[in-house]
Amino acid sequence: MSESPSVDQQDFDAPLVAAWQRAMAAARRPLQIPGHKNRYAADAPALGDDLLRSLVRDDLPLQGGVDDNAFTHHYLAQAEALWSAAVGADHCRFLVGGSSQGNIAALSTITHPDRPVAVDRTSHRSTHAALVITGARPVWIYPDLDPEFRLPIGIPAADLQGVSADVTGCFVTSPSYVGSLSDVPGLAAAAHARGIPLVVDQAWGAHLGFLPGRGALAQGADVAVTSVHKALMGYSQTAVLSMRAGLVGRGQLDRCVDLVATTSPSGTLLASIDATRAVLERDGGAALDRTMELVTGMRRRLSAVPGVVVLDDSNVPGGVDPFKVSLWLPRTGASGVDLNQRLWDLGHGPESADRDTLVLTMTLLDEPAFVDEVTDCLIALIEEGRGEPRAGASAAVWSNEPEVVVTPREAFFASRRRIPLADAIGEVSAEQFCPYPPGIPLLAPGERVTQETVDAIAIAGRVGRVAYCSDPTLRTIEVVDSL
Ligand SMILES: Cc1ncc(COP(=O)(O)O)c(C=O)c1O
Description:
The protein has about 475 residues and is of the alpha/beta class. The chain has helices at about 15-25, 50-55, 75-85, 100-110, 125-135, 155-160, 185-195, 250-260, 265-305, 335-345, 370-385, 395-400, 410-415, 450-465, and strands at about 90-95, 115-120, 135-140, 170-175, 200, 225, 240-245, 310, 325-330, 350-355, 355-360, 415-420, 435, 465, 475-480. The protein has four domains: about 1-75, no CATH class; about 75-275, Type I PLP-dependent aspartate aminotransferase-like (Major domain) (Aspartate Aminotransferase, domain 2); about 285-385, Aspartate Aminotransferase, domain 1; about 400-480, Alpha-Beta Complex (Ornithine Decarboxylase, Chain A, domain 4). It has a seven-stranded mixed sheet with strand order 1-7-6-5-4-2-3.
């Protein structure tokens, strides 16, 4: 604490950070939570110092820590108002349960039990969990796939025009995991023409809200979910749910957030959201420009490697996330899985990989020398792994178009029985099978099991982790027995 200037002495406004700093400096010994009593931030030795001190010393709860028990000073509300002003929102909520919490709250604002809602099938597993919680009936919409690369290149507005008139809202993910952007202005116009709200899961694109005209809200969405720990600098788990007033009410959004929020949020995590916004407002213009230039340069160098295809504004109609570098490798003969392992061993683990693709997340903290070095390294590894060009294989998470037999909620709460996965063709799944990354279920509750899905689960299990299913060996599945 003593080395860094306090926010009060600095030239920008970060109320939650300032309050956090004051609370830390006050070195209170509370007769309430937190159970660690702030002892790991004090000079005196404390029980379990060797294991706990470095992990817990910066922890302060919001309630009874950064603010008092009654939130008399409204530090959180002030910080949220500043974030809202920065991204052009009418209201926002800071979250410590990640964009997963944001997606559940956001979908809850636009759905009703048993009513249809248009949902991007390539949504993160948390959106599929939200369907279980809300009881809504999904009407899937799908991104277009590049005819050769078979990667998602954005959800066209026409997708929404085609779904039934009675949907209560529309939920899409943009940027996608590989960085492609959807036609958010077109989707917003199509949704609003029907009088329904548009939610955009922009978990990967929190930085877009700080670039004029590029955030989902600026492009017409009613609600945007953004992770502060992915493309920006917040603590892991931090996210923000923001909204424009009109088709979604502030009270409605608050109710849905509070439904799935802890009552003991970490003031430290929340303050890291405030700090991130303040830094972006103070230094963000130059830093964002620098990162976008670095990523453009990195893409240019990688595109020049024979056989490497880089997703960029030339091959994705709606353009790409300016921080994402996604490579399609079949023409090089190199394996994305091998490259992933080599990079991980060097301490530069990529965001995700399969045989044909490699996805890298770059942020404001990647400085020019590192970007050059890692690009050199990647080019060398591709040359080392170069082989016979091959045809690309389609990753099933992008091309999967499952039949919804009953609602995710009905399937989740139905009585279930376990059977061998190989014998489950035609049955209705009661659970998710979710390759992670990218965290998009191959199969979700309520969906019909097909031979293609069973094969895709086996392939995903051979190259990575298939999560959120009850049998980690992937040999069996819980299917709906009776509703
Ligand atoms: C598109 C998308 N939305 C939401 C999430 C959940 O984000 P969080 O990890 O912040 O809960 C993820 C996680 O990877 C994601 O890829």
